[in-house]
């Protein structure tokens, strides 16, 4: 399998390095780190970031609160659909989309691929449909208009799966190769999950929003810029579960450093390194 790392949405929230840890300007920089995987079952997307309809009609598709808070930069060339074409593929070749969760910045491009089968945990689909994503943000984080035209959902349980290291895992995703697993990581949302991909030299784990900053994994001492830490707390639905899963990911990153590579959805430095763009790719 060949894996392409895509940034499918840039946000520049006010706060600079207090938000992202690196920016020298008044504005921070975060990405929407998605994957495009070439498989024998067709192209597979892991998350979709913002879609073409979000770019064309942001007022209909996105919450004004989050558009302002995150200072979302809606760029046509950053949509997954545009990047699939730029890589020389037809968007119709995308046969599967695995969604870590259904937040507005992860699911906006789903309907750009109407023939794709969409994989998500059953609990995430249930709470997203009901808008149960937190007292204040619940009706703002989930935007059903981003995915209400999907005709082929594949829903999976959160627990009771086979073991993957010290985590539960959902294997045998319908129509997907066995090298791709879902790893439940609840806390940010009720049905949040990571996506693990077996490569020749080990595992790649897209941890979604289980953490937000590279300083939260990879070392015994962990850190996160204060404004980003506050944003995580605002978006969480279960603090204990989120922090427990974050600690488990940290332990995995240390104990299996040679076997797994973990990254989250929004850290620009992680994205730049994995996309082969060097640290300059993290600059705004």
Radius of gyration: 17 Å
Largest sheet: 6 strands, mixed
- On the 0 to 100 scale, the average pLDDT is 94
Task: Please give the order of strands in the largest beta sheet.
Answer: 1-3-4-6-7-8
Q: Tally the helices: what do you get?
A: 11
**DSSP helix fraction:** 25-40%
Please give the alpha-carbon distance between the first and last residues. Answer: 31 Å
Work out the number of β strands. 14
Low-confidence segments: 278-284
Q: What would you call the shape? A: globular
Helix/strand-derived category reads alpha/beta
Q: SSE order in H/E notation?
A: EEHEEHHHEHEHEHHEEEEEEHHEH
Strand proportion, as a percent range, falls in: 15-25%
Offer a quick outline of the entry.
With 284 residues, this protein is α/β, with parallel strands linked by helices.
Characterise the protein shown here.
It contains 11 helices and 14 strands. With 284 residues, the chain is of the alpha/beta class. Strand 3 (33-39) and strand 4 form a beta hairpin.
């Amino acid at each position: 399998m060949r894996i392409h790392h895509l940034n499918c949405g840039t946000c520049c929230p006010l706060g600079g390095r207090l938000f992202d840890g690196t920016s020298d300007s008044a504005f921070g920089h975060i990405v929407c780190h998605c994957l495009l995987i070439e498989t024998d079952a067709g192209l597979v997307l892991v998350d979709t970031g913002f879609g073409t309809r979000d770019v064309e009609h942001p007022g209909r598709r996105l919450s004004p609160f989050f558009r302002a808070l995150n200072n979302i930069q809606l760029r046509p060339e950053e949509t997954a659909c545009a990047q699939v074409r730029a890589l020389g593929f037809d968007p119709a070749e995308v046969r599967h989309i695995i969604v870590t969760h259904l937040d507005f910045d992860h699911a906006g491009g789903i309907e750009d691929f109407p023939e794709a089968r969409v994989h998500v945990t059953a609990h995430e689909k249930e709470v997203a449909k009901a808008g149960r994503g937190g007292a204040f943000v619940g009706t703002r984080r989930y935007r059903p208009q981003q995915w209400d035209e999907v005709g082929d959902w594949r829903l999976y349980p959160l627990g009771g799966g086979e073991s993957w290291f010290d985590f539960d895992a959902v294997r045998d995703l319908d129509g997907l190769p066995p090298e791709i697993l879902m790893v439940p990581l609840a806390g940010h949302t009720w049905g949040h999950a990571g996506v693990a991909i077996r490569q020749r030299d080990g595992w790649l784990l897209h941890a979604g929003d289980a953490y937000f900053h590279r300083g939260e994994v990879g070392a015994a001492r962990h850190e996160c810029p204060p404004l980003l830490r506050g944003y995580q707390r605002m978006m969480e639905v279960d603090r204990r579960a989120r922090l427990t899963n974050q600690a488990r990911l940290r332990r995995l990153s240390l104990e299996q450093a040679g076997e797994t590579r973990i990254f989250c959805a929004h850290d620009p430095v992680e994205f730049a390194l994995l996309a082969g763009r060097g640290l300059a790719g993290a600059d705004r």
